[in-house]
Specification:
By secondary structure, the chain is of the alpha+beta class. It has 2 helices and 2 strands. The chain is flat.
């Protein structure tokens, strides 16, 4: 059996929403939070940086 990990990038302009999502996802087996961003622009920049390292 293969252990698969789902990588998740969180983005929301409300810190409480990000915190709640992080809390739920950290308790979920097989989920890895790769970054947390405050908006979509920040998220796209973070994903672009991550992609260039691969």
């Amino acid at each position: 059996m293969h252990d698969r990990v789902i990588r998740v990038a969180l983005a929301d302009d409300h810190p409480l929403v990000v915190a709640a999502l992080r809390d739920c996802l950290q308790r979920t087996a097989g989920v890895e939070i790769t970054c947390e961003c405050r908006n979509g622009t920040e998220l796209l920049g973070a994903l672009d940086k991550r992609r260039s390292r691969c």
